[in-house]
Every structure is written in structure tokens, then in C-alpha cells.
Input
Amino acid sequence: MSYYEKEQARLLRLLAEYEAEEEDGGELLSSEESDADENVSEQDVQCDMDIEEEVEQSSDVQPEEEPDGHRNPSLFATKCVMGCKLGKLATSSTAGNAVKRDDPPPPAPTDPRLPLSAKQKYTMVASWKGISRAMEPTGVHMFLRLFEEHEELLSLFAKFKELRTRDEQINSLELQEHAGTVMNTLDEGIRTLDNVDAFNDYLHQVGASHRKIPGFKVEYFW
Output
């Protein structure tokens, strides 16, 4: 058997082994890897087109040579096929790993003094990012809802306790200002969640300031 025939047989054997492994593993392809497989399929089609073009232009391309100087276009085409197949395998492996790397890491455990689980803390911080883009209108809506459900609490707010209708409240500059202050207080508290000592100190300061309000009760914080 000549040199190029041995080389061709070896490459074809590798190709057959690869295709057999691909068929055996095809049923195990997960749903997360399906998108990556579609991309690989497109690349495989492109490879096949490239091979056809290269074979058609084989008169301009220098094919493989045997040790005795004879050229073998068949061996050249076989290596092109092997290159595309192995390239597909490498791309598929890389794409699969990329999907797995995209999985978010589990949240770090919270300080045991914080009455929140890691998931609750993560959800709160993530939700607050959206709220913080419109804190004042969100704060006004919060107070409107508070007064709808607990009208008796309106008397605690000296600057706008006379505002009895929703329209009066929503257009009140005093209520808007107070809503902004409250939302900034919440924002500062959420920003210090990673430092429980600072968080607790800040809560004590806010609580102490509210004790000065006549008629205020601890249970009003909700």
C-alpha cells in the first residue's frame, strides 16, 4: 500500500470514529445546547461549500504529495473533510462550555443577623434597581395607597393632613417632597445591606427620628 493510501485510510478511520461518537451522543444533546448546535450546523454547511469550491479549484491548489513526488487530490479532499468535521467538534465543545459558563453563580449566604435569605436579598436588590429610576412618583403612589387603606394615618402628617381627596394628595408638593425623602431613606438602607452593622445603625437613626412624632407607633412601620 502506498503512502497516500495509508494516510487516506487513517484519516477515513478517524472520520468514521468521530461520526460514530456523534451519533451516540446526539440523543444526549440537552435543550441548553440546541442553540449552539444550530450554529455549528450552519458552520458545517459552510465547510461543505468550501470543500466543494476547493475541489473544483484543485487545479490551482497544490494537493498532498507522496514521498516519491506523486500528488494525490483524493487525499487532499479527505483532509479537507476531516478538517471541517474536527473543526465542528471543537466548536460544538466550546459552544457547550460557553452555555454552561453563563449559568449565574449561587448568591452568597447572608449575614445571620439579617432577617432575609440570600434569595430574598437578591430579589430585593434586583427589584430596587428598577424602582430607583423613578423614586419620587413611586413614593407618591405608595403614600396614596397607604392613605386609601389606612386613612387614620393621614393625621400624623402635619404638612398635608388636610388633603382628603386623591387629587389633592397627588398634586401636593409637600407630599411629593416627603415621598422623595422616604424613598431616599429606603434607598440608603438597601445600599447598606452588605454591611449589617451600618444597616442596623441607620435603621436606629430613622426609628429615633420618628419617635418624636406625636402619636406615632412602632407598628406603623410596615
Q: What stands out?
A: Residues 118-220 form a domain with the Globin-like fold (CATH 1.10.490.10).
